[in-house]
Design goal:
This protein is α+β, with helices and mostly antiparallel strands and 93 residues long. It has helices at 12-21, 23-30, 59-68; strands spanning 2-9, 35-42, 49-56, 78-85. It has a single domain (2-85), classed as Alpha-Beta Plaits (2-Layer Sandwich), CATH 3.30.70.100.
Length: 93
């Protein structure tokens, strides 16, 4: 399993429009084979922050998505996003 998580920052006045611009991409990703979850959302506290979360079955699924992703050309003024690999998932206790 591959998880991509983090955030980007945009001007506060442009954040919500930027999230909305990604709506189609989120819908397409969630329908992509191997997508376990995909979210691009406004942060509840920081008016500039957009949270990013992707969860993919495997590298093959992620690679296939990257070939067709084509998101909007929004340019953040800051970003902190990391890719994590795991072979196990379990329910929290």
């Amino acid at each position: 399993m591959i998880i991509i998580a983090g955030y980007t920052r945009y001007d506060a006045g442009k954040r919500d429009d930027t999230v909305e611009a990604f709506r189609s991409m989120v819908e397409r990703a969630r329908n992509q084979d191997g997508c376990l979850d995909f979210a691009i959302s406004s942060d509840a506290i920081d008016p500039e922050r957009i949270n990013i979360f992707e969860c993919w079955r495997d590298q093959t699924a992620l690679n296939a998505w990257r070939k067709v992703a084509r998101g909007p050309r929004a340019k953040p003024h800051d970003a902190s996003v990391s890719l994590y690999r795991t072979d196990k998932a379990e329910k929290p206790s």
